[in-house]
Structure formats: C-alpha cells, structure tokens
Amino acid sequence: MDDTDLCFAPATTLAAMIRARTLSPTEVVEAVLARIAAREPQLNAFAHLAAGEAREAARQAEAALVAGAPLGPLHGIPVTIKDHEAVRGMPVEYGTHLRRGDVAAADNAMVARLRAAGAIILGKTTTPEFGWTGVSRSPLTGITHNPWQHGYNAGASSAGAGVAAAAGYGPLHQGSDGAGSIRMPAHFCGVYGLKPSYGRVPQSPMTASDQTVHLGPLTRTVRDAALMLKVMAGPHPDDQSSLEAPPADYPALLAQRPRRPRIAYSADLGHARVDPEVAALVQRAVRAFEQDLGLPVEEVATPWGPRGPDLARFFWPAHFSRHAERLPEWRDKMDPGFVACIEAGQHITLAEYQKMRLVKYAYCTEIHHFFEEWDFLLTPAVSVAAFPADRLQPPHWPQHPWDWMSWAEFSYPFNLSQNPAASIPCGFTAAGLPVGLQIVGRRFDDLGVLQMSAAFEAARPWAMHRPPEVAGAVPSEAALPL
Length: 482
Fold this sequence. Notes:
Strand content: 5-15%
Number of helices: 17
CATH topology: Amidase signature (AS) enzymes
Structural class: alpha/beta
Helix content: 25-40%
CATH superfamily: Amidase signature (AS) domain
Radius of gyration: 21 Å
Largest sheet: 11 strands, mixed
Oligomer: single chain
Distance between the termini: 24 Å
CATH architecture: Alpha-Beta Complex
CATH class: Alpha Beta
C-alpha cells in the first residue's frame, strides 16, 4: 500500500494493520499530513491544522504499541474535528470574526471519547459563520472548495469535514447537522454522512437550537461511520438530552437484518423542486434496492411534507436572531446573508415562537406516525449537485437574500423530528459531480440506517472513486455510475 492508498484506506483496515504491527501510527499520520500539505490551502478544508500535536500523539501511540499497553478501537487513527467543537488548546472560532482568537481550555465530551479510543486529532475543519448556511464559505476562512470541482460548494456547515473525507485526509471526520450539515457535504463531496438520532452523541455544551443539532461521522465507508459512531455515542451529564441507551455494537451488527424491511420512497416530499439529473440518479438508486437487494420499495405520499417549509423559514432566522445585538459592531465583518437571516428573525416575538413550536410538534408527530407504517424512507439528499460557492443558490434557482433551504428541503424535516438519516453516494452527474441518496429511519434506529446503508454500499460500492483534484484526472464516463 503506497502513501496515497494509505490516506484513502478505511479506519477499519488501518486499525487492524496497526494492531498487527504491519503499520505504525507515525507512518499513517505522516502520510496524511503530507497529503494535506500537498492539497492545502487549495481545498481549504482546515480552520486549524495541528500537525505538531498529531505527530507527538502518533509517537505516543507507537510507544504504547511497543509497550504492550491496552489499545482502544481507534488506536493511531487520524480524525478531524469540526470548528464548532472544543478541542483543548485549539481555536474554536465558528468561522466568524466574532469568535476569532478563542481557544478551548478542554476537550468536549465527544472529543474526549475519541481521544480515549486512541484517535489522533489532526485539527479543526472549516465551517460557515456559526454554521448558518448550506454553502461552504465564511468571512473568516473564505471558500472551502469542492474537491470534485474547484470553486464549487462543498455543502453546509460541516463542509471542511466532507472535503477532508473525500480528499484522503484520513478516514474519520466529525460533523454536526442542524438542518442537513452532515448530509449535504456528504452529498456534494461524494462520501457517507450519518446524522444519528438526536441525543445519540452528546453535545458539550448544548446548543441554542431547540434540540435540532445532531453530531455524527463523515467517512468513505459505512463500516467506518459505524465504528466512529460507536465511540462517540452514549449518555453524558453535559447533555441533559443525551439518550440513556449505550451505543450498540454497530460495526458487528451491520450485516444483520432481522426481518424484511418496509421501504418507502418520495421523490419530492410532496413539494420540493429537484433538478432532473439528480432525480434520475436517485430513482436509479431506489431501483437498486429492488433489483440488486431484492427489497421492495413503494413510492408513497408524505402529507406532512408541504408543511415543512414554513417551519424551516420561521425557526432558522428565529434561532440565529440571538446574534442581533452584535450587528451594530460586527455587521461589516459578517456574511451578508447571515446578517439578512438574523434581521429576518429579530422581530419574532416569544408568543409567536411558542405558537410555532406547537405547530412543529404536530408536524413531527405526523412524521413519527408515518414511520409506524414504514421502516425506512428514501429521498434525494439534496435537490441539486454542487454549484459555485460564491452563491447562496444555484444560478437557475430562485434567488433570495438568505434562504438557501429552497434546494435543501429534504434534510431539515428530520432534524425537527430527530430521526436518524444518512446521505450515501448514488451516482455522478454528467459533469462528474456526486449525488447522494438519503436513507431515513425510525427515531432511535441508527443501526437500521447503517444496515440499509451497508447493504446499498455492497450493491453499489463507491469508495474506489477519488476526486479529480486528488486523483489527477476527471473520472471517465464509464467510471461515473455507481
């Protein structure tokens, strides 16, 4: 295995080689750091690269191997952490000048678990300002570029993590998802992204987003996501909403399916616009469940779907209006779209907010009743393929000062309802841009979503695909279908 292959190798493979002492943590970290040095800042996936700390951690991991010390499941495996999360001694700046220079005094709960499992933290990945948008740019760090097309959107607030996963910056990358910010980078960058059930991975501290933010993995394989989730998940006193149940052995249970699942499909949730090329690739992926896996899929109505847009357009600016008091001092250094979003929400009253919460709860109840009949729902992950990152909307879509959600109507419903949902690569457009299929499961059935993802991955593998920015050549037409 040469250094390039090492950088794209799954964590499961690397961990086995490290345990067998056919590979050292230092070799892995040096190969990944060399790739990062060759590709940064062209892709601009890092808000902070901690190369020195990573090398020291690799040396310590190697010494532990030699000493025969107990090894965690991620011993010697490099990971990246989104800039929203606290890593001791590293900046935590949220992609904004308002937080520039902030440094975390301690690891948060999730990061501490990754370290305890033996993971080596490479640094912090980029995010839009306070994670407000589905477009990969911020006033602090600039554009984070899609590795399949320079200058194009890499998607949402975990964009740096999605780019890092696609570009071979090691196997494991942490993201968070408040309206699609794990699934959208997975879709745009051609990797796997899982938004677990709300509370599966504890937040530390909790966010002010009314329990819509979910922490989870972005990886190149489903098994790596299962491994990473197992390490991150479980209750924690820092998060009063964290789920009581300890994590299942997700990697060991991936191949099991206790009964024939009931699978539904919606092309548009009853209201969403979808680009024809994206729609065709998703429909082909849906047929793969029937033709390749022998699992019937039924196209269904989602009566609750059309009520989602009004909820999303209310709560998104309402939650970000907490930054309104900073506008007089910081407006000129903030993303203009973010400023427009804040201003759209700052006049919402508490009474209006409470009334809309009741509407939201009724909407979520409808979604959960839907899943009493169905085990899984398949949809597009996003309505469009990647587009220029200097725009909030693709040029052929309706324009708006802050509403980027018009092309992302499939993700936020399941943040509101707290269901697990994943984006898995399902094909490429004629221009060579990735497209994702969304797999949504019942609340708490994270294992089921991983199992369905693993089944689709086995039928339509994609991890051999590498972006042209990395591989050095545009994929041939023969290589594009999954």
